[in-house]
Amino acid sequence: MRKKIVAGNWKMNKTMEEALILASEVVNMVKDEVSTEVTVIMGVPSLYLNTLKSYVEGVANVSLAAQNCHQKASGAFTGEISAPMLKSIGIEYVILGHSERRQYFGETNEQLAEKVNISLENGLSPIFCCGESLSEREAGGYLELVASQLTASLFHLSAEDFAKVVIAYEPIWAIGTGVTASSAQAQEVHAYLRQHIAGKYGQEVADNTSILYGGSCNEKNAQELFACADIDGGLIGGASLKSREFTTIAKSY
Ligand code: PGA
Predict the structure, then answer these.
(1) Nearest to residue 129, comparing CAs of 252, 253, 7?
(2) Cα separation of 211 and 67, whole Å?
């Protein structure tokens, strides 16, 4: 059975003091209120990962994610963080290919394939983001476009490695806009992606792949979205910055 996952993406928010408060509140609320069948992940700024590790240790269903890593293991890449560094502090997940990385930092499908590879080599599970812009949706062909992002960055993997990847479908027009995809719109893409994965790796692998929805997911709409057959949780931006709201989303199953 595939995992149910609610992952927060804090992006470039919170000072250290604020981060410690938010993380400890989330961990405590999750311990008390969220089923252990739901994996809760906090995607925090890299600077805080090592400190926050002690907060999640011993809590079976809470983990940390980095928000990015470089595609090379080490070297002269000022300001970057590598997968071996994340491994060395015991991080389990890394968000890759977020639309903000693609848009503002020019990350390409090819570069993302390299980031996926180095993450897996270092025991990190990628949370691989894909999604179409509004103009791409309006032009039609968005299903094929989103599927092609998976093909280009993931389909070189062995089935064994692919099984370690979490997919996050995030329509760009829904990110940070307050406009959520309807559950029918999200389900359409999720089902298409699962079928696309089945075409490459077989039905069993596809059925075991967690596909998260992201884009203005909040405590009001999470329940309806997560009730869809092919939606296995969420990647939550703005609403992950408030412990009560984030926990409520994690409880939405
Ligand atoms: P949002 O962000 O929930 O604020 O729309 C989602 C994301 O970018 O992962």
Answers:
(1) 7
(2) 18
**Whose CA is closest to 30, among 65, 6, 48?**
6
| Closest-lying ligand 1 atom to the alpha carbon of residue 239 | 3
- Whether the Cβ atoms of residue 165 and residue 128 lie closer than 8 Å to each other: yes
Q: Where are the domains of the chain?
A: 4-250
**Residue having the nearest C-alpha atom to atom 6 of ligand 1:** 237
Going by CATH, does the domain composed of 4-250 fall within 3.20.20.70?
Answer: yes
Q: Which residues are catalytic?
A: 98, 170
Q: Is the CB of 172 under 6 A from ligand 1?
A: no
| 15-72 tens-digit pLDDT | 999 999 999 999 999 999 999 999 999 999 999 999 999 999 999 999 999 999 999 9
Residue that has been written with the tokens 């979490």 in this structure = 166
